[in-house]
Amino acid sequence: MASDVQGRISKIIREYEEQGFHRTGTTVDQASADWLSGQVRQLGLEPTQEPFQISRVDPIASVLVAGNRRLEGLPLFDGAFTDSGGVRGRFGMLASNAEIGLAEVVPNAAAAGALGEARRANRHRAIVCITRGGRPGLCPSNADLFLQAFGPPVLQLSSAEASWLNDQAQRGTDVQLIAHAIRTPARSVNVTSIVAGTDPSLPPLVVMTPRSGWYGCASERGGGIACWLEVMRALRPIRPTRSILFVASSGHELGHLGINAFVDRRPGIVTGAVGWMHFGANIGAATEPGNRLQASNDMFDDMLSREMSNSQLNVDQRVQRGTIPGGEAEVVHRGGGRYVSIIGNNALFHNREDRGPQAIDSGVITKFCAAFTSLARKLASG
Asked: Do 151 and 120 form a contact (C-beta atoms < 8 A)?
């Protein structure tokens, strides 16, 4: 019954969110992997934790000091860092001749546009970045170039301080920016499992969702994790014709390190799979309804569209064919594989307040579970 599924979804997302800050390579990340492995085991399947190594960024001090004010933030993880003394100088707008520039971007846009250009040109000794999410707060950007860090230190600060920061930049106030961090060798894991098909010679179907990110991630990651488990629950008893390989990857916020490690362990899997189903960010987020369908070809687009319609879901936006998709589907796209993906909207995206039952719509997530399960059954049937 739908009410039973909704209850399971709410419970799963609550448990996931309450684990804490889901940053890759941390104790929370490992505890979350152990928890998810337990969920897989309860479904009668054997989970595997596949490790990969990272150079984890551990922030020590992340502050902007101006006069008697001290603003706490978070550095960009794919930029440079300062020492404990930080950088001192005149504060000004981006592209000015000030030592410390001021920029403003939405989450995940820190490597593009004027900010990306200023970082590549090393135009300032350091940069302050106002993070402009759908709701006020500190909404960090992912470190898409984590393995190719570039530019000066960038300190991300809450949009709640935007007016004051702009005023200080216009005044040319002398400030101190500290983005002191160290790198620590660490490991993370992808959680994988397999529903064995009756014909192991057939190319498998891969079902993937990320499991790491900024803060509690209730609505950012919760819907995808819930769908991943529900598809597993539904397909395990039926023994499909082709095998279904499930992966919940860490490293999402660090340039998709986890899914790259998953692919590296399986040469040829990107194009060798019959297809990839990607449960992206914000599926069933309650604060800003809407979704975006990403597909490598018309057939996969049509198939998911039909299943969504059958589950009383609309496709609100389509990514133009050939466009590089968002999320882990990018890895499949660049490798020439076949994929279909859903990403939702979310006013709490990357926000510390992405938590609590009010952040998700379990009814919508239930409908997505039904649509994804039906599509997976058809893709794995022969």
From this structure: yes
Give the C-alpha distances (Å, rounded to integers) separating 290 from 115, 318, 343.
Answer: 28, 11, 9
* Residue 224 Cα to chain centre, angstroms: 10
Q: Residues 318, 324, 327, 333: what is their CA dihedral angle, to the nearest 10 degrees?
A: 110
What's the predicted TM-score (pTM) here?
A: 0.96
pLDDT digits (tens, 9 = 90+) for 192-206: 999 999 999 999 999
Domain edge (last residue) among 157, 184, 211: 184
DSSP type of residue 170? H
- Residue 292: enclosing H or E segment and its boundaries? strand 291-295
Triad 254, 155, 129: Cα angle to 5°: 95
pLDDT digits (tens, 9 = 90+) for 69-97: 999 999 999 999 999 999 999 999 998 99
Amino acid at position 97, single letter:
N
Spatial distance between the Cα atoms of 155 and 78, rounded to a whole number of angstroms:
11
Residues 10 and 52 in one domain: yes
Q: Is 291 left (phi over 0), alpha (psi -120 to 50) or beta?
A: beta
Domain count, the chain: 2
Phi, psi angles (nearest 5°) of residue 290: 135, 160
Look at residue 1 and tell me whether its pLDDT is greater than 70.
Answer: no
Confidence of residue 48 (pLDDT cuts 50, 70, 90): very high
- Could you tell me the pLDDT band of residue 210, with boundaries at 50, 70 and 90? very high
Q: Is 347 exposed, middle or buried (0-12, 13-18, 19+ CB in 10 A)?
A: middle
The answer on 208 and 325 residing in a single domain is yes
Residues 72 and 8 in one domain: no
Do 232 and 315 sit in the same domain of this protein? yes
Strand ranges (E), 124-173: 126-131, 154-158
Asked whether the predicted pLDDT for residue 182 surpasses 80, the reply is: yes
Kindly state the tokens that stand for 2. Answer: 């739908």
According to DSSP, the β-strands at 74-75 and 154-158 are antiparallel
Domain shared by 222 and 352, yes or no: yes
CA 278 to each of CA 73, 88, 94, 214, 340: distance values in angstroms, whole numbers, following the listed order: 31, 44, 37, 19, 6
Range of the domain at 149: 57-184
Q: What pLDDT does residue 382 have?
A: 74
Q: Percentage of the chain surpassing pLDDT 90?
A: 97
Please tell me whether residue 58 adopts helix, strand or coil conformation: strand
